Amino acid sequence: MNIAGSISYILAGKRIPQNQVEFLRFSFFDFFNQYKFLEGKISTYKEFYEEYTSFEEARKLLVELLST
Fold first, then answer.
1. Domain residue spans in the chain?
2. Which partner from 44, 50, 61, 62 sits 20 to 30 angstroms from 13, CA to CA?
3. Is-contact 23 31, C-beta < 8 A?
4. What is the model's pTM?
């Protein structure tokens, strides 16, 4: 939700709140340690993995964009 929300801020030309930017620095598995056991197995769930990968790429691009 943080990734999608951050993208909507950018598309609307709004400034992303700093606390939201800080959360973008963490991957899903960094932030939700209780699901870390799925990290190596996530690719076996095709649709979930594709969505996770898309959001992870978007998160990394946002972090890069906001770091400049």
1. 2-67
2. 50
3. yes
4. 0.84
